[in-house]
Amino acid sequence: MSTIFDGLSLGAIYALIALGYTMVYGIAKMLNFAHGDIIMVGAYAIFTTLAAGGHIGLALVVAVVVCVVFGIVIEKVAYKPLRGSSPLAVLITAIGVSYLLQSVAQIIFGAKAQTVSMVSFGSMKIGSAEISIASVITLVVGAVIMAGLTLFVRNTRTGRAMQAVSEDKGAAQLMGINVNRIIMITFAIGSALAACASIFYLMQIPSTEPTLGSMPGIKAFTAAVIGGIGSIPGAMIGGVLLGVVEKICLSIPVLAPYTTAVEFAILILILLVRPIGLLGKKRREKV
Q1: pTM for the model
Q2: Does domain 2-117+125-273 have CATH number 1.20.1070?
Q3: How far apart are CA 97 and CA 91, in angstroms?
């Protein structure tokens, strides 16, 4: 039971990161491979705040603010000038931004991993299973954030504008929607989600380094593709599925060394059976 619960909490982290990928792709039609490194930025913001004597709550606020600012600046400086360019040009730029963020972090903080002084939440027993309280917090808060985001997109004016831009950017602009503003808000929300994911990630592994966001970013992108890139519920399902599979594999000694291989094998299998992902929608290309 504790393995499943840990898997659900890890899945909530992957889902939060995957939501950033899927929202940016769904609305701006681009793959922001620098998104994983925003988690690293948030982790270093938390590390710096706690090292300066700040409270964990203040560290989260600082991380969210810093990540949102980084997300908006990256969109304005790196991606906005390429709007309308080929997807390959945007993809190469995203990879370049990713390496830039890692290099800057290495210059400022060094290449070695830094231990983050996170608060210890301890554990509790449910029956015979011992469950980490940090995992419970991650799962509950992650579920609340994801539910709140879903309600925001479905019920608010900005959320409906996001849906309109996702369906047809040109038609949305003709209806008076500021497309550039909506894309900027999307990057800001995705970056805020990455900041939340960074603090949950540090609760499980209290250490940060310049390449911190690489593997979680890749796995979250995998989760987004499994669920159906562009689908918010799909990103949630994909993240939870990947988190549970990872923890189950790690708990089985024979499978533990091949955990990552199993995760990507699931991705390949799902894409062979359903190329658009579990909840992905087919889009008609206009000629």
Answers
A1: 0.88
A2: no
A3: 10
